[in-house]
Amino acid sequence: MTTGDIVKEKGKKTMQLGEQLKYLRQIKNLGVNQLALKAGLKGSQISRLENGESQNPNFHTIKVLANALGVSLAYFDDISENKAKSEITAHLWEDISDEQLIEITRFIDYVKARDE
């Protein structure tokens, strides 16, 4: 069972970023300072995120937290109201070659056609 499955099972899929972060940190049995060290951030920064005092983290912050917690960026996808989602989306396309973009576009077309 993955961490994402645990979150879905518990009905936590609609949590805000701070709630997601705290919940996942606790599942991983990490203290705030342990996670901070693992992510290369300050403990106070993580506390502010978890308490909702900082609601618009940048892409880098979300990326290092996801890496430190062993989840993909998609785990934090429920923060759609947050500007970070658009930042994440923009960064996902940075290293895509023209050939890869064509392949991705074809796959999207395939999925759309399949689901019609």
Automatic annotation (TrEMBL):
Domain (HTH cro/C1-type): give its ranges: 21-76
What cellular component GO annotations does this protein have?
cytosol
Which keywords annotate this record? Answer: DNA-binding
Note the superkingdom of the native organism: Bacteria
TM annotation in the entry: none
A Pfam family assignment: HTH_3
Q: Which CDD domains match?
A: HTH_XRE
**Which GO molecular function entries does the Swiss-Prot or TrEMBL record give?**
DNA binding; DNA-binding transcription factor activity
The cross-references to InterPro entries, in alphabetical order and at most eight, read:
Cro/C1-type_HTH, Lambda_DNA-bd_dom_sf, TransReg_Diox_bact_type
Q: Which SUPFAM superfamilies match?
A: lambda repressor-like DNA-binding domains
What is this protein's name?
Answer: HTH cro/C1-type domain-containing protein
Q: Which organism is it from?
A: Tetragenococcus halophilus subsp. halophilus
